[in-house]
Amino acid sequence: MRVALVGCGTIAPTHARALAALPDDVELVACSDVVPERADAFAAAFGTTARPYADVLADPDVDAVSVCTPSGRHAEVGVPALLAGKHVVVEKPMDVTEEACDALLAAQRSSGARLAVVSQHRFDDGTRRLREVLDSGALGRLVAADCRVPWFRTQEYYDAEDWRGTWALDGGGALMNQGIHTVDLLLAACGPAVSVEGRIATVAHAIEVEDLATASVVFADGTLATLMASTATAPGLPARLALHGTEGSVVLEGDRITLLALRGQDAVHGLPTADAVQVATGGTRSAERAVTDGSVATAWGEAHRRQLLDFARSVREGRAPVVDGEAGRAAVGLVRAVYRSAREGTRITL
C-alpha cells in the first residue's frame, strides 16, 4: 500500500513514523501541503516526495491518503481522495460538522474504498484489556459511566496555529479537539447515545470556542453518563473513563487501567490488566496475555502504529477498519449535540 500524507503540520510526523514502522508492503510515497515550503521540509525529513495534491489524486500508484490537515478541512481533502479510488484515514475528529462527516461516508460508500478515523486510544493496551473486562460480563449490566478530560493548554498553544480555537476549522474547543478521544471510548463502551444535555464556557483563554464543557448523556440501553472536558484545568490531569455495572466497576485513567472492583472480591489497583481480567473472569492467566501490561500507558506513537496497521490490513482483507467512518461520525455527532444543547438551553435528542 503506497500512502500519501496530506497536511504536514503537528501530527504529520507521528503518522510518518508510524507508517515507517509498518511492514515493508506499506510505504509513504508522497506528501502535500498548502504551504509548499512546509511540504518540502517534511519530505526532506522523512525521505519522501513533496507533490501538489492534484497530482496525488491523479496518480494511480497512490493507494491511500492519510489526512492530517486542520480538522475543518478533513472532508475537503478526504472526499476527493475517496472518489478517486484512494483508501483514506483521517485524523480526529472526522470533521467538524455532521454534514462534512456524511459527505465522507457518502464518498466512501460510492467508491467502495476503506475509510478510517484516527482514534488511536482504542489501540492502547489498557483500552484493549478494558474491552476484555466488558466482554467477559464481569461488570454485570452497565448502568453508569463517568468521562473526564481535565487537561490544560496555554494561550501560546492556541496562538501557535491560526486555526486552533476557531469554530470554522477546529470545530470547537476542549470537547471537539481534546475530548473527542475519550468520547469515542465512551461510545465504544456504552453504545449509541440517544440524548444529551450540555453546557460550555470559555474561562481561561482568548479563543472563539469553549475551554470547558460538561454534559449528561443517556444511552440506548439506559446507561447514564457524565462528561467533562477542559483545557483550562491546570496543571492538567490524565483523561479518565470509569464504567460502573451491577456487579463491578473499572477505571481507565491515562491510558491504563487503575482499578477493577467486583462485588464480593478485593479491588484490584493498578495491576497488569491480564491479572485484572483473570480476577474478573475467574479464568487462567495465559503466558501470551501476560505479555501486555495494561497498567502501563502505551508509548506515544505505538497506538498510531497499531491503528495504521489495522487500516492497512482492512484494505488487504476487504473489511471495515476497527474505527470506521460510522464511529467517527458518532463521536462528532455527540460533541455537536452538546454544543447545540448549550446554545439552546435544552436537552437534545440524537
From TrEMBL:
InterPro entries xref list: Gfo/Idh/MocA-like_OxRdtase_N, Gfo/Idh/MocA_Oxidoreductase, GFO_IDH_MocA-like_dom, NAD(P)-bd_dom_sf
Originating species: Actinotalea ferrariae CF5-4
PANTHER family, per database record: D-GLUCOSIDE 3-DEHYDROGENASE, UDP-N-ACETYL-2-AMINO-2-DEOXY-D-GLUCURONATE OXIDASE
Key words of the record: NAD
Pfam families: GFO_IDH_MocA, GFO_IDH_MocA_C3
Name of protein: Oxidoreductase
Superkingdom classification of source: Bacteria
Positions of the Gfo/Idh/MocA-like oxidoreductase N-terminal domain: 1-117
Single GO MF annotation: nucleotide binding
Segments forming domain GFO/IDH/MocA-like oxidoreductase: 128-250
